[in-house]
Amino acid sequence: TTYDVGIIVGSISSTSINRRLARALTVLAPEAGLRLTEIPIRSLPMYSADHDAAIPAEAAEFKRAIEASDAIIVVTPEYNRSVPGVLKNALDTASRPWGDNSLAGKPTAVIGMSIGTIGTAASQQHLRNILAFLAAPTLTQPEAYLQIQEGLITDDGTVTDVLTAEFLMSWLVAAREHFERARPALEPIPA
Ligand code: FNR
């Protein structure tokens, strides 16, 4: 079976390199048994506890899209050695109202690309912390830290370097295996 996986991109920049990376993963994914669809975060309002009583339509739609996915891949930039605020806002939105955490038990995998040589490692570490708190089991190995290189990924999501394309494919295969292993987390615990 092919898994339906939601991709959350932690950047709303019109020239986002991480959206390009998400596109590249989407192109490669079918060969790893995954069908990737972006779950957009651009129009989410800033989360407030006031929303718990009356969830904004965009937030409700975002939560439903996560819940309908077999697994979630988060592709994130690094902002000031952490996750961008737009991504934190999206995760906060998904986690509430209390008792209705859309990410609970959802298998996840994290990846990212940045200018710096550590390739979003600090950002991903913070992201792993958040996902652990939200009870969303995360792929541990292989880690995927990518550095921006001119021409590495074309507009249509073609990866021009063979070794990078092979690495991304092996990461997707590992993610698929993790999603399979983590699936029992989605099933109710037998009485
Ligand atoms: C950055 N950038 C950055 N890069 C990095 O490697 N470590 C960091 O801590 C930061 N911090 C940071 C903060 C802010 C506010 C901006 C705007 C940028 C650079 C970042 O890697 C680069 O802008 C990427 O292109 C961002 O990813 P997207 O939006 O292109 O996907």
Descriptive overview:
This protein has 191 residues and is an alpha/beta fold. It contains five helices and five strands, in the order βαβαβαβαβα. Helix content is 36%, strand content 14%. A five-stranded parallel β-sheet has the order 2-1-3-4-5, sandwiched between helices. The protein binds ligand FNR. Ligand FNR binds next to α1.
Features of this protein?
five-stranded parallel sheet, Flavoprotein-like_sf, alpha/beta, 191 residues, binds ligand FNR, FMN binding, Rossmann fold, NAD(P)H-dependent FMN reductase
Give a short synopsis of this structure.
By secondary structure, this protein is an alpha/beta fold.
The CATH architecture name reads 3-Layer(aba) Sandwich
Name the CATH superfamily assignment: Flavodoxin domain
Bound molecules: ligand FNR
The average pLDDT is 95
Adjacency order of strands in the biggest sheet: 2-1-3-4-5
Structural class, from helix and strand content?
A: alpha/beta
CATH topological fold name:
Rossmann fold
Q: SSE string, helix = H, strand = E?
A: EHEHEHEHEH
Any chance you could write out the topology, listing elements then pairs?
Elements (H helix, E strand, L loop, with lengths): L2 E7 L7 H12 L5 E5 L18 H11 L3 E5 L9 H11 L12 E7 L6 H13 L11 E3 L14 H21 L9
Parallel strand pairs: 1-2, 1-3, 3-4, 4-5
The chain binds ligand FNR.
Ligand FNR binds next to helix 1.
